[in-house]
Specification:
- With about 120 residues, this protein is α+β, with helices and mostly antiparallel strands.
- The chain is built from six helices and three strands, in the order αβββααααα.
- Strands 1-2-3 form a three-stranded antiparallel sheet, with helices on one face.
- The termini are far apart.
Length: about 120
Amino acid sequence: MDIYSETLLDHYNHPHHAGTLKRPDARSVKHNPLCGDTVSVDIAVTKQRTIGDIAFTGMGCALSQAGMSLLSDHSMGKTLDECVKMTSDTMDSLLGARVSPGRRSCADLGLTAVKDALIDLHQLP
């Protein structure tokens, strides 16, 4: 399967949840030193400890930016526990293809940012 599917290219050209949140509960910025891609994610958490809102900005390849768009859709309404347990397999499922080892850091950049943003909140009672 071609990694640059129509869905992936649509998310790259028209990303969902693009932008920033005025009062995020969590924020993370991740940079991929291998290619220069960057993702900054803002997350608002509900009292029920679910993702109430998510927004991101970034620059980079279609895989990292569309991957973050797909991940933002997927994360809405999920619990913090569900989000921190997401893996590279989650990203492959969202992207609709298994990502090669050479592109793994691009595909997982948004996932790393989301998990980093939530790790401290997740550990709170």
